Amino acid sequence: MEPVAETNGGQGFVSGGRRKSGSLWGGSRFQMPLHYPNYSKAEYEAMPECQLDRLLSEYGLPVAGDVAQKRRFAIGAFLWTTNR
């Protein structure tokens, strides 16, 4: 009988008692912060780049690109369609 793959309390997948290295997102370690960001579209558009970088990195999201790309990404990721 072959071992069954199962999750290990958020520590990755295990198979036959061994933890498989890596993660599902190419090595990224996504971690959900305690609070969902609650900014308006206007606040994202006025947010300084360093704050955008910190916000995106808290969620394990990419921080590459210029400030306009980061703003568009944050608006798309964190705002519901009714808030845009």
Automatic annotation (TrEMBL):
Record-annotated DUF7722 domain positions: 36-80
Region ranges (Disordered): 1-20
Database matches in InterPro entries: DUF7722 (IPR056139)
Protein name: DUF7722 domain-containing protein
